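Dear colleague,

Thank you for sharing your sequence with our group. We've completed the structure prediction you requested, and as agreed, I am returning the results in plain text so they can be pasted directly into your records. Please verify that the sequence below matches your submission; if there's any discrepancy, let me know and we will rerun it promptly.
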Amino acid sequence: MTQSLTQLLDAARAGDAAAAQAAWPLVYPEVRRIARARLRGPAAPSLATEDLLHEGFLRLAQAPGAVLTDRHHFYALASKAMRHIVIDHLRRSRAKVHGGGWQALSWDTGMVDAATPETDGERLLSLDAALDALAALEPVLAKVVELRFFGGYTEIETAQALGLSDRTVRRHWTKARAFLLMQLNG
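Please find the predicted structure tokens below.
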């Protein structure tokens, strides 16, 4: 008898190493796609896709909590975990102990392009704060953003993951983007 992916993931979260090993090849392609979507652009240049992918899977496999309802629920949790890993990585890299966001310049690069108003990493940190504010007001809208923006999901995939219609996801996405733009632009 073969176990479903949800059963394997539940067993892995309960500490079954064999279940985690059996689940890994089944979730790997999708979790890798989510990790790549997370690291698109220079937002976290020192964080490799594989590192994010493995750290995210480890966090999910070891985290106690609610029982997974299905594979979409798992991928939604994976998107959220990877969002937190990237944000934590950015915060650590910008900490005062690590130079407080100063860029290292070599003698040959000089000060060219050093005077940009904000980096992509800073924008991502601002987006994270705005997303937390949205989650406090409208948790479903925040989940839509996590799946669409951080998970790289399409409208249809987001609808399936959240149990909503495509049209509802489209409305939520529009409303969430408007809220986030207002938060980011003051």
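Summary note from our side: The chain has one domain: 5-185.

Kind regards,
the structure core
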